[in-house]
Structures are given as C-alpha cells and as structure tokens.
Amino acid sequence: MHPNRLTLALESGAAALPVTGRIAVFAPLADTDLSALPQDRVQIVQGFAPDHAAWAGRGWDVAVAPSGDFVAAVVFIPRAKAAARAWLAQALALTGGGPVIVDGAKTDGIDSLIKACRQAGAEVSAPLAKAHGKIFSLTGDAGALADWLPGEGALIAGHYRTAPGVFSADGVDRGSALLLAALPAKLKGRVADLGAGWGYLAGETLARHPEIAEMHLIEADHAALECARANVTDPRARFHWADVTSFRPEAGFDIVLTNPPFHTTRAADPALGRAFLAAAARMLAPHGQAFIVANRHLPYDRDLAQLFVQVQELEGDPGFKVLHATRPRRAPRGRR
Questions:
Q1: What is the pLDDT of residue 271?
Q2: Per-residue pLDDT at 158
Q3: pLDDT tens for residues 5-45?
Q4: Mutual angle of helices 110-119 and 81-94, in 10-degree steps
Q5: Residues of the chain with pLDDT > 70: what percent?
Q6: Which of 316, 314, 310, 304 has its CA nearest to residue 279?
Q7: Do the domains 174-328 and 5-148 match in fold?
Q8: Could you state, in order of their start, the residue ranges of all structural domains in the chain?
Q9: Rounded to whole angstroms, how far apart are CA atoms 336 and 330?
Q10: 8, 94, 99, 306 from 136: Cα distances, Å
Q11: Rg of the chain's alpha carbons, rounded to an integer?
C-alpha cells in the first residue's frame, strides 16, 4: 500500500482542499490510498493501462488527460524528474494557481523538487515528512512553472521524438539497438513489438523489412504510445494501448519482438519480465518465433526453455544478450 501521507496531511491540516469543485489527481498507482478524497469530485489522470483499468473498475472517473475545470490537484510524483516537473506545471496552470498537493518519496527526488519549486517562484508550504517521503502544498501564479512544460525536444536517430517520463526518453536504448542489429535479414508476416515504447524498434524494423504485413505496437504507457503514433507513420503499423501481459490478439503472430521491462517503479521485479515472455509465447502462432533482448544477469534462458522448444543466444555484449526462441509450447488442455 502506498504510504498514506495524503490522509495524514489532510486530517492534520498540513494540507487542505476546497470544499467544493473538482480535483485532478495525477498518477496514483492502483494501490494508492485515496480514501481521504471525495470520489464524486475527483478525476484521476492515469496513462498507465493496468492502473487506469484498476481505477475505472472501482468506479472512479479516470482519464489519460484532465478535462474540464478544477479547483485543486494532487500529484503523486513519478521517478522521472522531467515528468514530475511537467505534471506540476500542468496542475498549477489547470487549477489557476493551486492548491496543488504534491506527494513523493525521497528516492524519487521530492526534496530537490521542493527546492526547485521555491526557486521558480512558487509558494511552497512546510512539508510533512512520513514513511521516507514528503507531502506539501504548492500555490502561486498559474504560470509560475511554465518553463517546466516540455518543448518539442531534439530529434533522436533523425526522426523520433519522445516525451518526459517515457522509457529511454533521451535516446535509443542500448538493448533495443542490439536487438535490432541481431534480427535476421528477412522478416515477414504479422509481427508484434511487446512494450513498444516510443516506437524505435518497430519503426526501424518496418523500414528494413518490406515483407512484414503488419506491425502491432503494444504499449501500456499512453504517453509513449502517442509518441509512437507520431513517430511510426508506416501504414502497416497497428497501435494498442494495453497491458502486454493480458493482451489477446485476434490471431497468432508470426514474430514477436520484445525488450521486456523488469522494474516496477524503482524496485526490480523479475516477475514482470517473465510475464512478458509468457505473453510472447501465448501470442505466437505454433510456427512463431520470438526475439528477446535482456540484461545478461536475468535468467531468461531458463524461463524461455519452459515456454519454447528451442532457445538460443544470437549475440550480445557484456551487459545484454539477444535470445531467439522458436516453437512455443502449448499448455495441456485444462491448464490454460
């Protein structure tokens, strides 16, 4: 459960919300405790598909971007500094100068964010510290943090743009580049990129392989997928905002490409990567093949051997390995 600094701050008077009007709540995780907020006045802003679905399933108003008028906001800061600043700037402008309640862990940079808000000219309340984090209120001129809103940004690899907070926002991920280089000279059929991010791997693969019939980009981060939509204009591309681990394609894929994530926020979570591998095996046609890149220390070879008949390492470097898995095993009937 997310440390309940919000309830403590509201009950103690360290933070306060207007008694009427709508409240925008940015990026609460699925297990964040929002019981201190009036549900009928809240719109949750959440672009990560599994968390979005969890809140919607509980009956909350949830959107990928705020809509309408708001008198206040609550921001749960992300790990990425640029994204945290962009959300605070958006929240302050959206509310006409606050209040914006800001909650974050020390490991996610809450202390440096407090200092940066003050330096930018915003008014910052005395922070309340609890459970290795802090919560504070932000008010001031609605445009006080306008410089923190993201600009267009520099092009990556000639024609790709990203957004604050998406994976590998500053450049091409080394693992993805290694996977691209290891692909065979000819690929054809229906291809899926699981965890497609801002579209580099899918875009480059399409450009190099005219025999591909369709490329399905499956990504849970809405902001990353929107970047991919802008970056990958090939008509063979199909875009899916979805949790890879629960996505069900209309038909089996011939090829799956993936650079599986293995972190949940700051914590390493190898089970997430294994879930991606299981999803790859499940989505493939019986003749299908998967190309996976992973950090060398992760035991994906062993995991893949349980999911595929054949597994081999194609190439790699001291930090990464590219694995090729063919002929997905099918669970006996009754064990699916």
A1: 84
A2: 85
A3: 999 999 999 999 999 999 999 999 999 999 999 999 999 99
A4: 50
A5: 95
A6: 304
A7: yes
A8: 5-148, 174-328
A9: 9
A10: 12, 18, 10, 49
A11: 22
Q: Give the whole-angstrom CA distance, residue 77 versus residue 83.
A: 8
Which CATH code is given to the segment(s) 174-328?
3.40.50.150
Q: Where are the alpha helices (DSSP H) in the chain?
A: 5-12, 49-57, 81-94, 110-119, 174-182, 200-208, 222-231, 270-283, 300-307
Both tokens of residue 103? Answer: 């909650």
Q: Name all contacts of 147-154 with Cβ < 8 Å and 24+ positions apart.
A: 147/89, 147/120, 148/85, 148/86, 148/88, 148/89, 148/120, 149/86, 149/89, 149/90, 150/82, 150/86
The two tokens of residue 106 are 């020390």
- Residues 168-219 pLDDT 10s: 999 999 999 999 999 999 999 999 999 999 999 999 999 999 999 999 999 9
pLDDT at 332: 47
> For residues 79 and 110, what is the distance between their CA atoms, to the nearest angstrom?
10
Q: How far is CA 326 from CA 159, 189, 277, 296, 319, in A?
A: 33, 15, 12, 20, 24
Is 219:198 a contact under the CB 8 Å cutoff? Answer: no
Specify the residue for token string 């919607």. 56
pLDDT at 331: 60
Tokens of 63: 């959107």
Q: How far apart are the first and last CA of the chain?
A: 30
In CATH terms, is domain 5-148 a member of 3.40.50.2000?
A: no
CB-facing half-sphere around the CA of 173: CA atoms within 13 A: 25
Task: For 124-139, give the DSSP string.
Answer: EPPPEEETTEEEEEEE
Q: What is the pLDDT of residues 34-70, one digit of tens each?
A: 999 999 999 999 999 999 999 999 999 999 999 999 9
- Both structure tokens of 102: 């800001």
pLDDT digits (tens, 9 = 90+) for 280-305: 999 999 999 999 999 888 888 899 99
Nearest CA to 222 among 291, 264, 163?
163
pLDDT for residue 267 is more than 60: no
**C-alpha to C-alpha distance for 242 and 48, rounded to whole angstroms:** 9
